[in-house]
Every structure is written in structure tokens, then in C-alpha cells.
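Subject: sequence -> C-alpha cells, single chain

Hey, anyone have a minute? Need the predicted structure for the following. Not urgent.
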Amino acid sequence: MTAGAEVVHAFQRNVVVAASAGTGKTHLLTSLYVLSTLGLTSMGKRDVRDAHDPILPDRIVATTFSRAAAVEIRARVERSLRAIASGAADAPFASEIQARVATLDAPPSAGEITARAKRAIERWNEARIDTLHGLAGDILRRFALPLGLVPGLRVGEEDEIRELSRSALDDVLAAALDGDEAERDAARALVDACGGLARVHDAVLPFLDRLDEEGLSPADLATTDHLALARDLRRRLDAALRDCAASARREIAEAAAQVRTELGTSDLAIPLAARPLLDRLFEMRKPSRANDAELAFFELRGTGPGTNLAKGRALVATFDEAPALEARERAMLSLLARIGETAASERRARAILGFGDLLRLARQTLRDHPEVADEVRGEIDVLLVDEFQDTSRAQRDLVYLLRAERATAGVTPGATDIVGHGLFLVGDRKQSIYAFRGADVSVFTAMCADLAGEAAGRALDIPESLWGTRPSSDFVALRESRRSGPQIISFVNAFSHADFGSLQAGAEEPPITYAEAERLVALKPAGADRVIYVVDDGTPVDDPLLAGEGGLREALIAAASAKTLLDEAKLAPRDLAILARRRATIPLVELGLARLGLPYVVAGRALYDTLEVRDLAALVRLVLDPRDKHALAQVLRGPIGGLSDTALLALCEGRGLSPSVLDKKGPELEKSTFGEEATRLRELRRRFQETRAPVARLAPEEALRTLISAFDLDRIIAGLPRAEARLANLDRLATIARDRGGSLLGFSRWLDRQIADETDEAEAVVFSPEDDAIRVTTIHASKGLDFEAVITLDLGARPKADYAPLGVVRAASEPPRLVVLHRSRLGANLDNPARERAKRLARERAAAERRRITYVAVTRAKRILLVVGAPGRAELESARSTLDAHWEPTLSAMADAWEAPRILESAFAPSGAPPALKPEPAATITRHLAVVQEVALATTPLGVFRDCPRRFQLRFLVGLDEPVASGQLDLFEMASDAPEPEYDDGPTEDEEGDPRVRGRAAHRVLEQYPRERFGAPPETGDIEARLEAEGLEKTAASKLASDLGRFLGSEIAARLGGADVELHREEEVVLRLDGGEGATGLVLRGTADAFAVDHQTDTIDLFDYKLARPRASLGPYAFQLGAYALALARTYPNARVRAGVVFLLGGEVRWLDPSGAPLGADVLDRVEEDLARTANAFARARAAGSYEGVEESTCRALRCGFITACHRKTSPSKR
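Reply:
Had a minute. Here:
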């Protein structure tokens, strides 16, 4: 055990830990938690040999950055305590427990330690392990009433919060524009600063969010004295003109003298007569050997973008407008405060809070209400804070408030005001990569120095001015890597030392160095790991399919490197991860992996960035507005239209693409010139005209699914690489549309915002953690993970600073200051030192974060680290610029060099064609997928798989729409001799159209029909109107209304509508079956059409609606009904469940048990056995990639629409 671990486990004082990558910080935190519950620490004791009493879980608060991390910590601690309580010989933390027992003078016995673990487990339901946001929410809910909050408040969804904030902003801005002159000026100034009305939301809302993270409000911000700055600038101009007139070159001297003459004794503004002369002077070129006077003058032009004349005129405009700028900023702050207050008021009225509200209100509560602070602090003995490098000032204040010795109203405590023991902070400043979420690594750095003083300051190379004068904490640096081998560690140390060391000196904030205390030390033996640098000199590859440039070439090299590693290093695909800096790189990597036939999974949160989602979004926009040229171009050029650039050019008229392309009489492509493209355009136009009007009236989910089907998007995608995942992404988007509801127009606008904002949303990954597939993800998403081998690319990406139009800057002895982009009346950017400082700070932060992101990437590998280079000169501040600058002689001694062209040609050899095109026998193709330990699936697809695996594959993996009624229209097939069970006729086309459409309409009407009218005489006209509103034609709606009316007026409907039952409609049910030894577990999800819970009789009636005539046998429905019944029986363990089918074409109910009795335990046991068998069969089929068909007689019994495709005869018998 290291000396640092001993300090942590003793826990006499507060402890601050700087934990480098792979050094086991989560292990350290969880071990301290366990030791605290067992009474094995010396918290608050003078002597390390004295023990503190055991601390129960309800008095230990542990927080971390994400809910997933909190769940992991909770699981680790609980697993450890249960093992200790059971006396397990292999219980975790045995060495830590033995070390502390050996240190203590009066240690507890083994039996007492076991008893203490049992007491901790008995109170485990009271354990408080969460995020800081979750902890803040608990405080606010608990003290809601005295704080004037609604007790049932909840954290709103991100888009819900954003919509409220946008509405509040619009309302306040509209009111200001209708207000007095001062309000109108403030509103116009804010809009102008943001770059126009369309950009106000994107500028103001993130600014207000940042204030929440900073623990600030607009009222806390200072403004800039622009008038004083302008006067100083004018004095500099006057001095420079005077000196130039006296000592500059003749041309410059004469021009300067003329300007001085016209300036006369003017105060600030430049006289009109002097302006043309000053323009001429500013347009002059700076001499190559300028003297001091000339340098002083030309420096006034600045270094920003624009011509010299534009810069000079911006300086003149600054003198004109400076007197009004500070008042303008004060008015803008007042307007911003009203926007924030209005948005907060709207959220409170709806009893919802945003994440920023949680921190801000909890901080205010603890600061301004000492009685609340005392009560909250009195319930916490230990506070353990994980991942604190990703923190903000508001979170820092919250930690100090929770550990303050005493509460003083209105005062936020500092590091010297907290209790000297019971606080554990751990983080790694080199892994702070979430600045876009409000994290500020400088807060963690300052806290280390403030809490631990000189010890932290010297270890981390922190400026002495930040060291705390009265440190209350011990400092520990974790350096021992349990992850990577010595070769990788040596490379990481050398590269990171150079990379962090290349940050520019004289920075606004003290830069992070790669300090000696953070240099990793390998614990693994030498010889088992390696580093590879793929050097690309840009040599072209003969194969035209590999002739990509830039990002595409780099992605193909990454894919080729992956294949080489799998072949040479004998890795399994699941051992390998490809990490990209940018999301846009991932589709290119997918292309390369797909061409090589390598199994992979994209583990990311970029659903709205996927091409299939963007194509569908464009199609929706075009349906809503056929004049949207951008959407039109995307649809025509993408997979839906399939037209070439030449074809699009032929469809242009005047200044661009003709908006009438898809009109009935729109422009045509010449058949003789464009061939198939002309045909595709006519077909696309036909489908668009047929689909547009009805789709525009549909609900969002139904509209998406209709468009996918009508334009064959599913079939198109089925032919692309990674088809399963692409189709799943479209299905996920449709599910999101269903959950959001609303109109199609509203959903389209919302979706466009998600795409524009690059909103995080998990993709519909169709692989499980057990799959043997390469992981492809971003560096951000890889944080906290490790892999046997890692390929990282995008090393040439240059850091991009975010120059927000609204911002905040801080100086050492000044209050935080508002930063605004001010423009002149003619649009010129005015001179603004505060904004220039903010831009400089943004550049420095972007450069520093680029280094931290790279550090995360290169520290994920256990055995092999491969970095991909790119041809040409490296971008300034990029990781590759550091790599190339230090390759010889330092880094080359630690890494092998591979030549990119050789890797490309070798991987794609011999012809460069995709493996799928090689004439290999099917038996040689293997799927690299493991048999999963758990299957998560919806009930319907699992039921389809149970009946016929091939039908499941065609419908749910390939994404084909099952042909309607082909099971009955195969007139030339031989009739089957096998008897057919009495199955439902399935999707048979009839005079009322596709029954699936009518079935969906019937389900929606039954879901929304007023419950109080169940069992009453039906109002057929009302039902018919509801069906027409769902898109049915009048004839079909009239007939179906009569059928639904029979059911809605029936005795069973009256029971559903009764006041004594609890009715659930379209309710999700979830069933989990744990797999035994060697078996596959199952998580089954489905939506029950309706079920009624009678708490008086403890019975549940479960119903499935079918648009069919009554059948004697419920065979086709038994699987789904049984699964739902089993799920409800587990959800309501004391209730008895009846299950039946409501046949809507007749209004009758048929029960699964013909007697109408509840299902017995034996029936439910058989259902469970059937589900388990099906789950195991599904797991095996999926692992093998083999979905076998069934006998033709069974297909006919199932009324399968794919019967012709699967069982076509060579010589069909015609009758």
C-alpha cells in the first residue's frame, strides 16, 4: 500500500487527491467509504492509531459527476459490505482492512467488523450516493415549503426547460420592444450584440446557464467604463500622431501633421474634416523597419480581421459611441435579469427546475438560511466528492457550505471556514474536458492550493499566490497506473510533458503543467505493451476507392490499422476501440470498417448527427414547406432522391434550385441525358404528391413511419453498411416523436434545433456490452473507460475557441464583468478591451482543453496505443504538432512507426474491393458476436422471432415492410396439405384499405375515448369523427365506428369505465427474467392496450384489441398476452390476472382461459419457461447471425407476407 493510500485511509484530516489516469481513484473512494462504515478510520483524531466510531450510510454523502458513476459507486460499496457481512473469504478491501486493523491501538475484532457491515447493510436503503445536482435537489424538496417552493418539484427535461426559457425570452423581448425608448434601445442593443434576432436564443440562454454555474446573476456583473477607455485611446492616438509628425517617414509624417491640424482641440469624437485624412493614414502600409513612433501608431489598428481602413474606421466609431456604451450595458443587464427571472418564475409555476436552478437555489438556501444549513450539515459526518475536476464555482460553494464550521446568513464560506476533517475530494485536472457543460478546471486547481496549501502548490506547480495560508487538508497524488504497461506509460509521460509544456507563457490563467507529481508510474511488467505511430506522407494509393483525402483518408487508415491489429496482435474485436475527437469523423470510420467487413458498434450520443436522421428531418421539412430549397436539395441528392450533382444543376433556374421540382408539372430531366435519374425524379415526384397532404395531418410518430414506408427509406438503408443500427436509429427517432407528441410542425422545428445544437441523444445501438465488436466512439464518451487496444485519430484537429457574444470575465481584484460585442451604427466592431481579453482567454482555454482531451485519449489503452497521423504540415496547437516536433529523438524511441500507404494497401489487398464482394463460400464468413447474457427486446419482435426467426430478420433487422396479404394472393403456389390452425387473417387488404392503418386508428380512438362514456350507449357519429381525424376515409370510418360502438356499449366496457377500478390504457409493461447458469436473461418491454386493476377484489383484467372477428382459438395471441400477464402478476404480486382479446369486429371478448378464470400459477410458469427458451434461442441466433425459416405450412398458418420470397417454387403450378 502506498503512503498516499495510508493517508487517505487514516482520514485524520480533510484529504485532497490528484489522481492521474488509471490510478484507481474510484477504488480509493469506495474503500474509504467502507472503512468509514466499519469504524476503521481515524477521522478527526490526533493520532493515527485512534479509531473513529462506525458511521452509518445515512450520514455519509458521496457525490460524483454523473448518475451512471453514482450507480457504479453504490453497487461497489454495497457488494463489498455484503461480502464482508457474510464473512466471505474473498471480500473486497481485505488488505486495506488488515492494514488499518494493524495500525489501530484498539481495533475491532473480526466478528465486530462483520457485525458493523451487517448494520450498514440494514441501513443501506438510506445511503446517499448521488450527483451534486441530485443532492441539491434533495435539499430543495425537503425544505420546499419554507423556501416558497412546491414540495413535488421535479427536474425538467432539457428540451422542456429550453422551451420555457425561449418563451420567457420572447415575451420579455417583445414587451421591451413595445415599451418606452430606453427599453426599446436595450432590446435592440441585445439583439444587435447577439448578431440578429435569429441568434438571440442561442446567445442569451447559454449565457444565463453559465451565470447559474458561476453562482451569479446579472445583477452581480459589473459594466465597463467605455468612456474612460475611449479617452485613454484618444490620448494614445494624439500622442502617436504627434510623434509621427515629428519623427516618422515623410509620407507618414505629412499625413499625421494634416490630421493633427484638423483635430484641433476636439475632445473625443473625430471631426468630420479629419476623418478622410485619418482614413488615408490608416490605409498606409507599416514600414518594414518602423521606428517607435510609427509602431505606436500602427498598433492602434489592432491585429483583428478586416482591412486597415475598416480597423481605422472602427476606432473612429468607438470615439463616437463610447459615451453611451456603459449605459447600454446596464440596460442590457436589466433586460437579461428580467429574462432570467421570468423563466425562473415560469419553471416554479410548473413545479420544475433546471440543473442550473438546483445548484443556484441550493447554494442560496444554505447561504441565506443558517437554520437550514445547520440542519443539513448536522446530518453529514463524511462528504466524499468524486470527479471534482469537472466542477464550477457554484458546486465549489455548495461543498464549502456543506462543510462549514458555522453558518452566517448571506456569507459563503471559504477554505479556511470549513471543518478540518470529514471531506474527501478527488479529481484529475488533466482530464477536465467538459467546459461546454459549465466545468471550470481552474476552480479545482485553486481549491487544491486553497485547501492543501504549499503541499499541493509545489506538487502541481500552482502559482504561490494561490496557496492557502491555513491549509486544512492533506494532499495526496496518485501516480501508480493499474491500467497501462510501461511502454505506454513512458510514451504518455514524454508526450504529455511536451504537450502541456507547449502552452503559451503569459496566459490569462495559470496553465496546467504536467507536474512531476502527476507523472505516471507503471505497475505492470515490461514487454507486454507497445505504442504505434502511423505516419502518413500522403503517398497516393493505387486503388481509387482508397483515394480519399483529409478526414476520409485518416479514417480509412484507422480502419486498416484496426484490421492489422486484429490479425497481428490476435485481439478480439471487442478488445479494440477507435476514438475520434470529432463526431463528424465517426461516419467516415464506419465506412472504412464496413468495407473491411469488421464488426463494430458506435457507442455515442449523436443520434441527431446521423445521416439517416438528417435525411428524414429534411424530408419532413419538405413536406411541411415544399419551397424549402435546402431540404429539397438534401432530399434530391441524398439516398431518397439519388440524383447526381449534374442532375441538380440541370434542375436549377435563376439563382438556384427550382422550388417547383416536386410540383405536379415541375421541371423534368431529359431521359436521353440522365436515363434512370429522370425516372427516379418522376417516381419521387409521384410519391411526394400522393403523400404530402395526408402526412401533414398526422401525429409526428405516424408521419415519420409513413414517410419511411412511402419513400422506401427502410429498404434503401437496408442496403447500406450497418443497416441494423441505422434502421434502429430511425425507429428511435419515431419513438421520441411519439413521446413528445404535439404537431408535426412543432416536432420538425424541435428536431431542427437538436440538429443545430448538436444535442446529445443516445443512438439506438443494437449491440450489447457482450458483443465481440470494435467500439467506435468519441474521446469524450470514452472517459472513465479502458480497452486492451486504442486507436486514436483527429490528432491534427486545431482547437477552436468559442467567442460568445455575451460573456463574463474575472480579474484578481475586480468583480466579474459583463462582456458584450458592441457594434457601430454601420456594423463595425467597436474597440473593447474587455472583449479582447475574453477572446484571448477563450483561445487559451481551448488550447488547454485540447491537451486535456488528448491526454484522455492516450491514457485509455492497456496493451496497445496506436495514433494515426496525417499528411502535410500540422495545424498550430494541434496534438500532431507536438507529436511531430518531439518525434525525434524522444518519442521515436518509445514507439514503432508504421507507414500509412502500406497499411492501407495491405488491409484492403489484394484488389481493394470490399470483402463482401469476394467470391468466398458462405461457410467461411463468421460473425464476431458473443452469446449475450441478457436480451432486451420488445414483445412483438420476440413473438415474431418465436414463430419464425427469418420473418423477424426481414421485418426488424433488414427493415422490410411485410407485404400485405401475399399469404393469400399466392395464387400460383401449390396448396399445402397440412391443416391450418384457426389463425387471424393477418394484414389482408380489403375494400376499406390496409387493415394496419385502420387498426392503428382504432387503437388511438380507444386510448383517447372518454372513460366516463365506456358502457354508455355509443355515439356513433362522434366515434366516426374521431376515426376520420385519425386519417381514415369516411366510408371506412363509418363501418369501423359501428364495430367500435358495439364494444364501447358492452358490459365489459362498462366494467372498464367503472369508478371502482383503476384503468390503464396504452401502458408500458416491463418483465425481467434472470438467466440462470449458462442461460440468457430477458428484459421484455411492451405496451398493453388496456388493463383494469380492481383493488377491492385484487383482480386485474388485461385486454388486447384486435381488429378481427372472434376466433375460437387464441393461439396467435397467447405468447404476448401471457408475457403481459406475467409482468402484471409480478408488478401486482397479490392480484390475480385474467387475460383476453377484444375482437373489435364483433365487440366480443375471448379469454385466454376459456372459463374466464384468472390464470393459475402453473400457466404463468409455462409462460416463463416459454419466454426463457425463446430468449436463449434468440441469443444463439443473433450470435451466429443465422435466422432460419420455418416450414411452408407454418408460414401459411401464420399468414406471413414473405411466403413467396422464402418458399418460391422453381416451376409454380398454375391453375
